[in-house]
Amino acid sequence: MASEAASLEEVLYxxxxxxxxxxxxxxxxxxxxxxxxxxxxxxxxxxExxxxxxAVRTEMRESRLLSAxxxxxxxxxx
Length: 78
Fold this sequence. Notes:
By secondary structure, the protein is of the alpha+beta class. It has helices at 8-17, 38-77; strands spanning 2-3, 22-26, 32-37. The protein is rod-shaped and about 75 Å long. It starts with a strand and ends with a helix.
């Protein structure tokens, strides 16, 4: 069991230390508030990583364009 305010790290620690795939989440009154599975965590991380990859690709493209523009301006000055 974990608090519904538990961090991702805490939930993953509980799954690993107890060799379980699901962790019940309880509210402040100790009532069941939800259930987190390892598959839920993996899906969430997959979405976050996909967003990160997209942002890095965009940044790399923009960086290449700026570099090409600078080289073009430098060549025109010569």
